[in-house]
């Protein structure tokens, strides 16, 4: 089953944007993410609808962060990208009347709910600012600057 990497991708884009001094175009962000600008616009539209980013058209326009990164959690971003399914595993539903299948599904259902609750709680604990701070720390450890990482041509 294919993994859904929307949350990771959005967070990656946002980390690049944190250090930018001017708006970034969809084309510039797509280049950083090795993807198509249409994909970036689609992703950013959901974030714009939530007020996390804003866009300006025309010369000098582009995407900027429109919120206080310390007030936004990874859970907020997760919801903005459509709250994709967390677990790829699911129930077997071929014989819903089978008592064995019902027992197995009930046991798995509890485990699935617990695992999702743990992940969602962790997403609530991490702000965009905390993620940006970790990113900056890693840059310093590698002797790089924020400008080197967010440079867009």
Automatic annotation (TrEMBL):
SUPFAM superfamilies: Winged helix' DNA-binding domain (SSF46785). It comes from the Bacteria. GO terms for cellular component: cytosol. Pfam families: Rrf2. GO terms for molecular function: DNA-binding transcription factor activity. InterPro entries: Tscrpt_reg_Rrf2 (IPR000944), WH-like_DNA-bd_sf (IPR036388), WH_DNA-bd_sf (IPR036390). This is Transcriptional regulator. It comes from Phyllobacterium phragmitis.
């Amino acid at each position: 089953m294919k993994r859904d990497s929307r949350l990771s991708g959005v967070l990656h884009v946002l980390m690049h944007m944190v250090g930018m001094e001017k708006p970034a175009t969809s084309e510039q962000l797509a280049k950083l993410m090795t993807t198509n600008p249409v994909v970036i616009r689609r992703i950013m539209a959901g974030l714009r609808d939530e007020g996390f980013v804003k866009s300006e058209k025309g010369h000098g326009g582009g995407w900027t962060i429109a919120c206080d990164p310390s007030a936004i959690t990874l859970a907020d971003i997760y919801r903005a990208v459509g709250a994709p399914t967390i677990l790829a595993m699911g129930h077997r539903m071929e014989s819903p009347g089978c008592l064995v299948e019902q027992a197995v599904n009930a046991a798995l259902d509890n485990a699935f709910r617990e695992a999702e609750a743990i992940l969602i709680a962790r997403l609530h604990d991490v702000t965009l600012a905390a993620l940006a701070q970790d990113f900056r720390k890693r840059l310093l450890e590698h002797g790089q600057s924020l400008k080197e990482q967010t440079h867009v041509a």
